[in-house]
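Ticket opened by: R.M.
Priority: normal
Category: complex prediction / small molecule

The reporter submitted a protein together with pyridoxal-5'-phosphate and asked that the result be attached to this ticket for the collaborator who will pick it up next week. Submitted input follows.
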Amino acid sequence: MDIFDKIDRIMSTDLGQWATVGSKGYFTYPKLEGPIAPRMKFRGKEVLTWSINSYLGLADHPEIRKVDAEAAKDWGLAYPMGSRMLTGNSDYHEEFEAKAAEFMGKEDAFLMNFGYQGCISIIQALTDRRDVIVYDQLSHACIMDGMSMSLAKRFVFAHNDMEQLEDRLQKAQRITERTGGGILVITEGVFGMKGTLGRLDLITALKDKYEFRLFVDDAHGFGVMGKTGAGTAEHFGVQDKVDVTFCTFAKSMAGFGAFVTGDAKVVHYLKYNMRSQIYAKSLCMPMTVGAIKRLEMLRGMPELRENLWNVVNTLQNGLRERGFDIGNPQSPVTPVFMQGSPVLAGLITVELREKYGIFVSIVTYPVVEKGVIMLRMIPTAAHTIEDVKETLDAFEAIRTNIENGTYDNMELSMIQA
Ligand SMILES: Cc1ncc(COP(=O)(O)O)c(C=O)c1O
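Result attached by the on-call engineer:
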């Protein structure tokens, strides 16, 4: 059999159908052009975008653009060459780490080249065949991949279900008593699809009853949650009880790269055991210098977070008041749930973009249950209350169309631009 035979089989499924439509750059691989801001260009037309994770609006901030550009001019994109451990270290990498650790209230931090790979390596490095991982069902793909690279056993608990978590901890304990291993609980701070928070308050409270360490992927919480923006653990007041925290630069920091924080001993161990960092090039200088600047702004400009939350609250309250089902987000991530087929999802997306100039990302099965359509919105500090009003009006118009059956006999091909 040809190894490529599976391609036809896989691409003829629902997912493949979406990929085919997507190959035109409409639903998947769209191109948003122009400066990264609430209003960008999509296929030549201005759209109000709610799909970009630059929570604090830093992506196109003039001060950030300046520092990035100057660092690129001074250092180029190559320096430092090699992995951190061998030839890829610099004073700037270490300066960032010291500042990040201090900000997060932890003993140490380690700067990483890419978040996804970093997260995988943290899990792989911290666990061996005697250990058990207990993780939230909605965990991000990098956590799933990290576990598949780990030799530890694993148990899943339903999203934020503390009873199930306890049950899994008891099972895990029975295993580790036999193997002599330990337990690592993994959850996220902010769940990036539905906007719920990992219940770090309740999970850390279980430390009184069970022996385990807690690893939190706070990709969407860092810079956004907590009084100072230190993340979801700060929001719940449990920073001292979270053992290892992962934060990416890909969201509130509007860049790429990531870091991990924890006790000095743990971070030191990670530095020598994370395969994706030891065997890959370190973060380039413009991004490292840029990360120092971003962290400075994230800490020194609380007004960015205030703007963000003002937009978030106006959007979420507005959607609720108009009767939209937005689930139960406690973070900026704002899902809007509707019922219908993937075709209806496509029709709504096209109408929003073409008729109302609103760009949102659409999520269908298998990410959400069959028959559910989720429009995922990311408000940012750069959006205005006017942007929110315009969007709410468009959503109402779309809902009226759905109720009136406007889309009932339409096919995507009829309206796709
Ligand atoms: C929850 C979560 N963890 C990890 C990552 C991976 O981070 P990065 O984009 O820096 O590779 C992402 C996506 O960016 C994410 O949403």
